[in-house]
Amino acid sequence: MLIQLWGVKKVYGEGGQAVTALNDLSLDFSPGTFTAIMGPSGSGKSTLLHCAAGLDSVTDGRVEIAGTEVGRLDEHARTLLRRKHIGFVFQAFNLVTSLTAAQNVELPLRLAGRRPPRGAVDEALAEVGLADRAHYRPSELSGGQQQRVAIARALITKPDVVFADEPTGALDTNTSKEILDLLRRMVVHYGQTIVAVTHDPMVASHADRVVFLKDGRVVDELKQTSPAELIAARMARLEA
Amino acid sequence: MLSLASVRGRRWSFAGSFAALTLGVAILSTTLLVFAGAQPQMPQRLSNADVIVHGPRVHNDFTEDLRPWTAGAAAVLVERLGAVEGVRHAVADRSFYAQIPDGPPEGHGWSSTLLAGQSLVDGREPRGEGEIATTGRALGSELEMLTATGPVRVKVVGVVSGPGLYVSEAWAARLSPGVKAIGLITNGTIDLSDVELDGGVAVSGPDRAILEPEEVGKTRYLGAQLLVAMAVLGVFITVFVVSSTFALAASQRRRELGLLRAIGATGRQVRRLILGEAVVIGAIGAGVGAASGVVLAPILARLLFVWGLEPFPAVPIKAWPIPVAWLIGVVVAVLGAWTASRRAARVGALEALREAAVDRRLSKVRMVFGALALALGGWLAIDTASSTSEDRVDKALFTACVLIVAATLLAPMVIRPVVRLATSVLPGPAGMVVRGEMLNAMRRSASLVAPVIATVGFTVMLTGMVTTMLGAYPAGRAASLQGLTVVVPQGGVPGLSDAAVAAAGAAGQSYLSARVSIGGTLLDAAGSPLVPEGAIAIDGRAVGSSVPVTFADGETVSLRVVGPSTSLEDAEVARDLVRSHDGSALTREVIGGVVAGPGAKVLDAQAYAEGEAEEEARLLWLFAIVLIGLSVGYTGLAVLNTMGMATSGRRRDFEVLRTAGATARQIFRFVLTEAALIVGAGALLGLAVTVPPLLAMARGLEEETGLPVSLVLHWPSLVTVVAACLTAALAGTILNVSGRRVGA
């Protein structure tokens, strides 16, 4: 397993104001799969992503990334671990505005002190269909194009897992579909592992597996690719 | 790559730091260039002397002088030097007090014309007493020449080719038997290594500058003080402005920094990014600033000359200050970005995912440092009050710097109640929105207030200091005279002659001012009628012991110590003893004198005290105005810039407000209210940190003068400066709300 969570508990705040975001949650993500994590607002799905990706620490329980227990690491070591094993695609503000698309893509390698292999950046951009936009700045790209650059960047380090936080949340339906097809292709062609947090059944319908959260626990799960209508119906039941 | 691209891509947000650095380094480079260029120069009147052999150096804590040879020793040395191979002329250069109307207060022996390279244009050289040669006077005209003993009728018998007042060598030797320098006119280079110089030192080329008259050096010293103050202020404000703009820029970029952290940048890498940006900005901004010093330095040098703070209208431009200023600029940029970079490194990866940051609280460390700075500033203020008047201005300036840092660090404590109070009386939604905006982005509010504190603080401090000091000093001085009148020299005359002292009246008290030396130590001595012949009153010597005192004529007299000096001078000796050994010694003033003799005037106590303070007042105001101009111009720019940055960084917030139903006019009102509150809080803080030290200074002055001294604030300048800050803040806001500037 690439990433495993055992009995994870996450509490924000203290005393009477304490909020339990994750409550005794166990989950794992196997290689080459696309998992969607769904749940109503406040169900803890964003917290799950932060904890599973090593962005945040857990109050109790264990999180293991590529065999390393995250809880034992300090922030610096967590950064190095993330850099090596994990890629991110956020909802918006994904790119450093002062850098070109190509520079944004090569940034993680640069930060790791590595020189991008010859042609790697161009290949990554070509993969997401932006070969001709390499020298554009984020402000000169559409929202969909910016997300494609973010995906190319997430993939350049060949991470074990890409975490996506509402990757299509800021996009229109058609563009969303393109981005989701792109993510799907990465899973199918390259065996990329993807974990996406979303509230959109359309996104979840591109996943191999859908995990439903409520009140910080896993309450339901669809173990195969499912149509959006079915997912929406499950969601409606949760929110009821 | 990232730092460079980042600076390029965010050039608007860096424009402020860049401008601040360019300006700061331009000031630094200009002052350094003038400072480096304004070095002692050989007096023009000795320019023809290829080599000068001068007497041994003597010095005290403040200045140095040359010990003269006696007339006899000088004659022997002149003869010996004249016999050296390659020496065409060896000339003893004699200088003494002699002044014709509107002329400089110095005369020389005829042979000094050789050293000046001057020749006779008309008439003949002066031979006997009562004959002079000079320029710009009709041959044969008769004049009254002032000497240290009194006025003498003289006749112009010769006209020379350059400026100067010359008398016969014999008369010169009577007026000034001692010789401080012997000028040599040579054929090519000469070898003096085997010549016994009787303790003297041979100098040539630029080293001859040691013979520069002391008055010229004093003028330069005044100028140097202003230059130092300007440079210190320049560096301080640059660090101040650069650090507050960098802090603001970093806090506006939390999301981007968080993104970098999320995709694998370590805290150290983020820190290096920010410092790298500072280096890029520093290198370019400081480069422009340092280079512009070359253009600005001659202008500043000219201004200082006009203000009487530099002896010469132009200074040579040296190369070294330019790279030095540049380097300091880069270091200052990095220092300014230091705290911002530390804070940026602590931005967590999760920031990338959060909405606009709320930072209500400022760290305890900040408060601790603020309190420490406040304590240090308070102590410095008291120290300033009790220090001597010469370095009070520079000390007060330093105090102001420290207190301004304190006020800036502690600003949030004041901003909070000011904002609460002001917004509670505002009608409509403005109160609620402005309060929320300012209190929830405390760091931004604090960054905005910082330059206002500096501007108002410097203005109140400098003007308050000058007005208070100028009120206190003449009052104290006048009171100490208890209604007596004082005889003082008229304008252009350096001191009173014996004749003027005698004419002033028997009741007057006065002493002769003279330079003497004991061994290698230079002393300012008072020739007092109360000290018996053969005695000396001096500090730090055993009563009854003998000390060898060398006078202006080079003679050394053994004097018996009778006790410590009772005057402000280092030593007191008999007046007649001074006169017999020093033909140029003058009397500064006669306290209680009632009659104006030649070259003198009578002043009542008040006029005398004001006259004493007049030159100091002129200098103090000059210093204050230059420094206020510098700091206000500079911090005004910072206010404009930080307000602009803050406003343009909040476009999105304004969009949200607009979609929530706020009209453009309402948003405008919100930001203008904020700008006014920022300036108000800054002005309050600026006043708050400067009034206590000013009060402490007033108490110090009370103790010094024994009279009540009230703190006088200079309200016109305060009102002007606050208005200027408000204008700059509104301009920065309006320019950016109306969207003419993009990016940031």
Features:
heterodimer, A: 240 residues, alpha/beta, six-stranded mixed β-sheet, B: 744 residues, seven-stranded mixed β-sheet, five-stranded mixed β-sheet, 24 strands, 15% strand
Description:
The complex is a heterodimer of chains A (240) and B (744). Chain A is of the alpha/beta class and 240 residues long. Chain A is 36% helix and 25% strand. Chain A starts with a strand and ends with a helix. With 744 residues, chain B is of the alpha+beta class. Chain B contains 19 helices and 24 strands. Mean pLDDT of chain B is 84; it is low at 740-744. In chain B, α11 runs antiparallel to α18 (664-705). Helix content of chain B is 55%, strand content 15%. In chain B, strands 19-20-18-21-17-16-22 form a 7-stranded mixed sheet. At the A-B interface, α2 and α3 of A face α1, α7 and α8 of B.
Low-confidence stretches of chain A: none
Give the largest chain-chain interface (CB within 8 Å).
A-B, 30 and 26 residues
Major sheet of chain A, described briefly? 6 strands, mixed
Rounded average pLDDT of chain B? 84
Global mean pLDDT of chain A = 86
Secondary-structure-derived class of chain A: alpha/beta
Number of helices of chain B: 19
Uncertain regions spanning at least 5 consecutive residues of chain B: 740-744
Oligomeric grouping of the chains = heterodimer
Overall geometric form of chain A: globular
Count of individual helical segments of chain A: 8
Query: Helices and strands of chain B: which structural class?
Result: alpha+beta
| CA distance, first residue to last residue of chain B | 19 Å
Cα-based radius of gyration of chain A, to the nearest Å: 18 Å
